[in-house]
Amino acid sequence: MSVTALRVALVAGLLALPATPALAQRRELQQMAADIRILQEQTQLLQNALAAVTDALKAVNTRIDEQTGVTRKTSADAKLQADTMGSDIRVVRERVDDTNVRITSLSQEVESLRDAIAAMPVPTAAPADPFATGSPEATAPGTLPGATTPAPTTPVPTSPSTPTAAPGATTLSPSRLYDMAWADYTAGNYDLAVEGFSSYLRSFPKSEFADNAQYFMGESYYQRGKVTEALDAFGRVISTYPKSDVLGQAYYKRGMCYERLSQPDRARESYDYLVKTLGETDAGRLAKQRLDALNRARPQ
Question: What confidence tens digit (pLDDT) does each residue in 258-271 have?
Answer without folding.
Answer: 999 999 999 999 99
